[in-house]
Amino acid sequence: MAPTAPSPASSPAGRLVGVPPSNIGEQLLRLLESKEGADVGCREFTAHTLVLAARSPVFRAMFSQQNSVHVDSVGEAAFGALLHYAYADPLPMTTMAELLAAAIGDAAIGARMEAAGLLIAAADRYCMERMRLLSLVENMAFI
């Protein structure tokens, strides 16, 4: 019987090789922050059409018809959160911190609900269902 080759997950000594967790989200965020290779942008944001098209069927359709898009009806903070989500998958902690800021009284609850509504509206506008659900869940947990 012929000897078998070691499996890719084991070393010659038979010890398992540790595989680090994925950090693709961190790497893509660095790409977004560095603006390297960005091919679409405005004063406030730059991004990569391929990333946006991969994450949103709305952006995919827009970029298949034209090289530039006009983003309207989405506020700056909500669009920044959408970009962060598109590149890294979770919502940015700064946005969540804004949503979860000290809540005392009805005004604070209303402000959180309004901010969450902006995130949900941005997710709906660009058909990013997981982002919409995350925004709902995070907001509901603290009301």
Quick one: how many beta strands? 2
Count of alpha/pi helices? 7
Radius of gyration in whole Å, from Cα?
A: 20 Å
Q: What low-confidence regions span 5 or more consecutive residues with pLDDT below 50? A: none
**Helix/strand order, N-terminal first:** HEEHHHHHH
Rounded average pLDDT: 80
The coarse silhouette is globular
Q: Give me the secondary-structure category.
A: mainly alpha
Span of the ends, CA to CA: 66 Å
**Largest sheet, if any?**
2 strands, antiparallel
Q: Order of strands across the biggest sheet? A: 1-2
**Helical coverage, percent range:** 55-70%
* Beta-strand residue fraction: under 5%
Describe the structure in your own words:
There is one protein chain. The protein is an all-alpha fold and 143 residues long. Helices cover 56% and strands 3% of the residues. The chain has 7 helices and 2 strands, in the order αββαααααα. It has a two-stranded antiparallel sheet. Strand 1 and strand 2 form a beta hairpin. Helix 1 crosses helix 4, helix 2 crosses helix 3 and helix 6 runs antiparallel to helix 7. The chain is globular and about 60 Å long.
Quick overview:
This protein is mainly alpha-helical and 143 residues long.
Give the topology, please.
Elements: H1 24-34, E1 40-41, E2 46-47, H2 49-55, H3 57-65, H4 76-88, H5 93-99, H6 105-125, H7 129-140
Antiparallel strand pairs: 1-2
Helix pairs in contact: 1-4, 2-3, 4-6, 6-7
